[in-house]
Design brief:
Elements lengths: L1 E2 L8 H12 L4 H11 L1 E4 L3 E8 L2 E9 L2 H8 L6 E5 L7 E5 H7 L1
Parallel strand pairs: 1-2, 4-5
Antiparallel strand pairs: 2-3, 3-4, 5-6
Length: 106
Amino acid sequence: MTCSSSNYMHSEIFSRAIQLYAEKHLDFEKELAQYSSFGYVYASPQCIIIAVQQEDCWFIQFAIGEGYMRRFLELMPFELPYVAWERGLKSGKKVRVKLSTLRRHL
């Protein structure tokens, strides 16, 4: 599922995402295109969320901006028992939380 608009491609939030990826010698726009084909992408002037289903879990590949986790919980295409993410871009430090626990804390 993709919820995005080319109008956001020139926003401050996209500029920040591109810069973060560039610092790691990665291409944000390439990854965005890949996940748009087989994952979930949400983009607004306030936040960007890139996620993919991995078995019983939504793995948030990348997220930036204000309130992105609440927004993802509101808009995820369907519920899965867990949500996971990596602390820091491509850091290898993964976190996996029960969806019910995450909802209680947000």
